[in-house]
User: Which sequence fits this backbone?
């Protein structure tokens, strides 16, 4: 625990990357997320935990405006990244999503080669001038995603031919390749076996050096292992937000305690 | 007893078999259904099938065999030289059958008593006139041999019919009795009924295949006959299509092949972009409300009979193209042209391509779209770089399906492109296609013994080979991309 406390003290000194104030989300008539206030720090892993349907994925999808692609979703409130309101009409969601990368629950590599999967983002955002630049970005992203050694000899093969864990790391490499500042992960390990999960978790810890990572997870062990900050959602409310060690050892709210001890879920 | 009555009787026996089998199984269960191997209805179906199927099978075999055997018997009535070749024999036997049936229907109509019918002879009665009275027209006067043979035919047929009925019913009853006898509590009725069901499924699936084989064989045999009358190389590589019915026809395939490909090409140029753009709009951009209105509306086009499209080509598109494009540019003076037919066929194929492509694009997983949007791709980038490549094998399949339909299209070409076989590059000239010429070579009163008519079969085989080639190509494309993507 001492190590954990050390990192938390370091984290507390970090700058705030994202501020969310009074965020409300409606899916049609349904009020899915009620009045959420959260500050997400740089170079920190923040975990969102809570039972299914509590709004944690919904909130995650607000942070890169993915809810815009859902016709019936409506978002209110104020979300700022580096002080800039991302729901301002001048902000192009397309550019926002290049800055806020996302990794999904199920590995979803495109039916293209491994190389083209990683090069997809840099190509559409024009990040590489030459083929050599692009090669460099692809290699660096794959290295950061701890996948390079496994795939360097078969970059031209289809990304869908990899194993589940490799596919998820490919999706992480793909998200890293656009040079994001924040990485959102929506239950990135729920479709993976324990070994692949361990690899991805190790990777998340390394990614913290470069990005803010926000991870939605159903596994409280995972939240405890990888995150420094934890937010507990319940029935569309943000119940408690704080240092991970505090949430898991000495929560303020009785609902949080009930959830982490397995009495509600 | 006629075959219809026999089959009805067999069906009735089958119904009896169902109830007997079921009742016997219920009795064997002693009131506890769990003692039975199968559900009671399976025992019923087993009884019904046993009563019906073997007897029906026998009836079919008998009905095929009987005419053959009778014909062999009747051969004795005619001198051997009349049987010199196959055609004579078929004609002669047709005469005999016709006279026999004529006499039968005269008896049924009451024009002859059964005794009078047997007593008919060529010296006393004008058989042709008597039969004409009851509505049976004969081509020529009836000869003594034919009449004699016909009388013998009637006799044999009626004896045969009697035995057929007796044996069929006996078989049905025998099998039914056997089925009831073996119905015990541990008898595996379900397995046997399901085996029969499986057999029926297999039979159904072979029918389509056998029909295809039959079509190919019949066309092939006529094509071979054609090639004995007309040099096949001239057919394949001839540059002129000029059939005359006095002989000396020039039956070159190339002008027709050119017309077919030219018109289909124009059609695909119209249909492919329109269809795919429509599908992209419907699948990715249209709101559910727009989609629910537009999609059925487009699909209505597919339901319009092609002859109506032909009319549209003839009275609207053709004159429009002639007055506004062909005549001002000096390209042609004909309303019937490759453009007219091609454009209208293209419009006809749009719903085909758009509907199939739309379904295929909708089948692309939402997770791929999310992945692309999550990387900051716009909608059009997602469509171009993720959705279309993922859907490509299916789209190629849809396009090739539409292409083979365009190649086989007849009515619109007849009305929109004219009927003159020409080798020309000008798309505002009238041209024609293989299908149109197949129809025109086979309409009218003609005999299947001249190259001018038999060429239709050679054309048909050509068309078949082309569409087969397209389908093989489609399969190849689909498989190639599968390997790469999945």
Assistant:
């Amino acid at each position: 625990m001492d190590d954990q406390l050390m990192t938390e003290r370091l984290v507390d000194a970090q700058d705030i990357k994202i501020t969310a104030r009074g965020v409300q989300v409606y899916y049609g008539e349904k009020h899915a997320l009620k009045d959420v206030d959260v500050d997400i720090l740089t170079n920190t892993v923040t975990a969102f935990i809570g039972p299914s349907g509590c709004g944690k994925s919904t909130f995650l999808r607000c942070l890169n405006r993915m809810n815009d692609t859902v016709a019936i979703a409506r978002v209110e409130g104020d979300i700022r990244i580096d002080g800039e309101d991302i729901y301002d009409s001048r902000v192009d969601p397309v550019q926002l999503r290049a800055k806020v990368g996302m990794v999904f629950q199920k590995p979803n590599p495109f039916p293209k080669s491994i190389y083209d999967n990683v090069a997809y983002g840099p190509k559409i955002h024009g990040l590489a001038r030459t083929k050599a630049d692009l090669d460099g970005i692809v290699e660096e992203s794959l290295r950061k995603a701890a996948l390079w050694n496994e795939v360097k000899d078969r970059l031209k093969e289809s990304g869908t031919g990899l194993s589940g864990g490799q596919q998820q790391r490919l999706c992480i490499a793909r998200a890293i390749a656009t040079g994001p500042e924040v990485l959102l992960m929506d239950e990135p390990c729920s479709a993976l076996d324990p070994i692949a999960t361990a690899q991805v978790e190790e990777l998340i810890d390394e990614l913290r050096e470069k990005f803010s990572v926000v991870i939605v997870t159903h596994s409280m062990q995972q939240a405890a292992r990888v995150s420094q900050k934890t937010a507990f959602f319940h029935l569309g409310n943000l119940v408690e937000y704080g240092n991970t060690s505090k949430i898991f050892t000495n929560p303020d709210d009785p609902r949080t305690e009930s959830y982490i001890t397995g009495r509600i879920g | 007893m006629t075959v219809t009555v026999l089959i009805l009787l067999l069906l009735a026996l089958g119904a009896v078999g169902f109830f007997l089998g079921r009742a016997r199984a219920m009795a064997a269960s002693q009131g506890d259904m769990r003692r039975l191997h199968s559900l009671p209805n399976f025992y019923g179906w087993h009884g019904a099938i046993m009563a019906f199927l073997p007897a029906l099978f026998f009836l079919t075999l008998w009905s095929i065999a009987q005419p053959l055997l009778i014909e062999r018997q009747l051969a004795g009535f005619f001198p051997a030289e009349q049987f010199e070749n196959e055609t004579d024999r078929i004609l002669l036997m047709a005469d005999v059958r016709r006279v026999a049936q004529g006499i039968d229907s005269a008896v049924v109509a009451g024009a002859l008593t059964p005794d009078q019918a047997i007593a008919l002879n060529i010296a006393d009665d004008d058989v042709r006139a008597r039969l004409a009275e009851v509505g049976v027209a004969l081509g020529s006067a009836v000869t003594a041999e034919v009449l004699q043979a016909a009388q013998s035919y009637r006799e044999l047929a009626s004896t045969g019919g009697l035995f057929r009925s007796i044996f069929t019913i006996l078989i049905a009853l025998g099998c039914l009795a056997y089925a009831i006898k073996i119905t015990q509590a541990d008898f595996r009725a379900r397995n046997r009924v399901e085996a029969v069901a499986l057999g029926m499924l297999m039979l159904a699936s072979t029918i389509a295949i056998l029909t295809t084989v039959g079509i190919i064989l019949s066309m092939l045999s006529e094509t071979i006959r054609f090639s004995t009358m007309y040099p096949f190389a001239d057919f394949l590589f001839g540059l002129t299509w000029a059939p005359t019915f006095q002989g000396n026809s020039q039956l070159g395939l190339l002008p027709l092949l050119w017309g077919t490909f030219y018109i289909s090409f124009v059609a695909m140029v119209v249909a492919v972009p329109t269809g795919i753009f429509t599908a992209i709009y419907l699948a990715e951009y249209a709101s559910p409300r727009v989609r629910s209105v537009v999609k059925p509306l487009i699909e209505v086009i597919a339901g319009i009979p092609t002859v109506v499209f032909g009319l549209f080509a003839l009275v609207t598109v053709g004159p429009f193209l002639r007055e506004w494009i062909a005549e001002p540019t000096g390209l042609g003076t004909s309303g019937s042209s490759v453009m007219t037919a091609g454009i209208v066929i293209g419009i006809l194929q749009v719903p085909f391509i758009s509907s199939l492509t739309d379904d295929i694009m909708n089948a692309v997983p939402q997770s791929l779209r999310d992945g692309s949007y999550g990387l900051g791709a716009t909608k059009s980038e997602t469509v171009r770089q993720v959705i279309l490549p993922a859907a490509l094998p299916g789209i190629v399949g849809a396009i090739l399906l539409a292409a083979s339909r365009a190649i086989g299209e007849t009515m619109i070409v007849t009305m929109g492109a004219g009927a003159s076989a020409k080798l020309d590059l000008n798309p505002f000239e009238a041209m024609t296609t293989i299908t149109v010429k197949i129809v025109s070579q086979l309409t009218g009163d003609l005999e299947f013994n001249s190259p001018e008519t038999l060429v239709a079969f050679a054309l048909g085989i050509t068309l078949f080979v082309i569409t087969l080639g397209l389908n093989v190509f489609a399969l190849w494309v689909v498989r190639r991309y599968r390997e790469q993507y999945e």
About this structure: Chain A touches chain B at residues 64, 66, 69, 71, 94-99, 101-104, 106, 108-112, 120-121, 124-125, 158, 160, 171, 174-175, 178 (CB under 8 Å). Chain A is about 40% helix and 25% strand. The domain at 2-260 of chain A is CATH 3.40.50.300 (Rossmann fold).
